[in-house]
Amino acid sequence: MHLYANAPNSEDAATNSIVSLLLGTDNEEHIKSRKIFTFNVNNEEIVISTFVFTPTGGNNVQYYMAAFKKECNLEFENGNIVCKGLPVFKFVAWELIGERSDISEKNRQVETSSLAYKDGVFSFIVHEYTPDDAMCCPSKKRELKFKLQETHFVEVI
Question: Sign of dihedral through CA atoms 55, 60, 61, 65?
Answer without folding.
Answer: negative
